[in-house]
Amino acid sequence: MINKIARSVADALEGIQDGATVLIGGFGTAGIPGELIDGLVEQGAKDLTVVNNNAGNGETGLAALLKAGRVRKIICSFPRQADSQVFDGLYRSGKLELELVPQGNLAERIRAAGAGIGAFFCPTGYGTQLAGNRETREIDGKQYVLEYPIHGDVALIKAERGDRWGNLVYRKAARNFGPVMAMASKKTIATVHDIAELGTLDPETIVTPGIFVHQVVRIDRVATQAGGFKKAA
């Protein structure tokens, strides 16, 4: 009997190795798997390469993982905002490596990994420092830069509902990078608020099929606070 429901966050995260590449879903604070990130801090894996759209807000979630000194490199598209002080301090002191990737390129590089695409040409970044020394090519009169997939050893994502087979549905914008990260990783761990009985999820609403998911953990609903804004004085 297939049952991917983990007893706890700690059980789901067991086995993540030092030096792993961890894809973490979320856009700002929407869809951030906070419980899994906190669990990863407790789990202790270090020298991680983290892939996320942002580089953490305030002192919690991804910022807490950075502050704990567990991350060697971060690949993201939007590292700095009003409350990105943890990232700022680590980067400026040379304790954290940054690979800055345009947002569309980031999503497509992850998607390419899940789709089995070896590399692709994209126009974004051509003629800028973001292109680095990568190969360029003119296609139909337009210049493109060669981009490579981003594969993950593990993906940590947040969904709304799931079943014991690992089928997932998401809530609105919390979906963001979750589906492509699940496809691009060797192991996908997802939190859900509700565990559905097998067969009760409408197949037309399932965004991430269970074949891409290895562990599901149920978590309580907790109100989140928007990131990137400073409170009024």
UniProtKB/TrEMBL annotation:
Q: Name one GO molecular function term.
A: CoA-transferase activity
Membrane-spanning segments:
none
Asked whether the keyword Nucleus is assigned, the reply is: no
Task: Tell me the first and last residues of the signal peptide.
Answer: none
Alphabetized, the UniProt keywords read: Transferase
The record's annotation in PANTHER family points to: ACETATE COA-TRANSFERASE SUBUNIT ALPHA, KETOACID-COENZYME A TRANSFERASE
Q: Which family does it belong to?
A: Belongs to the 3-oxoacid CoA-transferase subunit A family.
What's this protein's name? Answer: 3-oxoacid CoA-transferase subunit A
Q: Which organism is it from?
A: Variovorax paradoxus
